[in-house]
């Protein structure tokens, strides 16, 4: 069977097959290598270390809404990363959870194993990046930094709203 005949018989599905093959050839090896290296790094960092950092420095807002969600996702992956919130004060838990949930997508750009359920999101967002010849590493780093900024803002806003709701409920 000739290639042109196969292409004609597939019709509109041919473009989707092309996309799938480009994912398999271009993105697949990168993700497999990143999964292997990152899983090794995560095994080297112990869960108890993260809990002690959360207990000791969880009162500092910037650490609570940037460093702790990252460490939780990096070391324990999703959904176990929310256990870090157990080390925080009760009033800080809703905002920490909001920050952690909001960071699940951006962390996948550099550390795909941390939220493996979202790999399809990562792969889908990488297609235009590859087509535009943008560096995948640069994209991952910028996405990660933007994610840190967003979770800091979301955590702070959620903390303020939680404090207001708690004040209203006690009145």
Summary keywords:
171 residues, mainly alpha, 8 helices, 75% helix, elongated
Question: What does this molecule look like?
Answer:
The chain is mainly α and 171 residues long. It has one domain (3-170). The protein has eight helices and no strands. The protein has helices at residues 3-10, 14-44, 47-57, 61-76, 93-102, 104-108, 119-131, 136-170. The protein is elongated, with a radius of gyration of 20 Å. The mean pLDDT is 82.
Percent helix, as a range, is over 70%
Query: Shape from CA axes?
Result: elongated
Mean pLDDT: 82
- Number of spatially distinct domains: 1
Q: What class do helices, strands and sheet pairing give? A: mainly alpha
- Low-confidence runs of at least 5 consecutive residues: none
Along the chain, the helix and strand elements come as: HHHHHHHH
Overall number of strands: 0
Number of helices: 8
Amino- and carboxy-terminal Cα gap: 78 Å
For the largest beta-sheet, the strand count, sense and barrel status come to: none
Radius of gyration: 20 Å
Q: How big a fraction of the residues is strand? A: under 5%
Please provide a brief summary of the model:
By secondary structure, this protein is mainly alpha-helical. It has one domain (3-170).
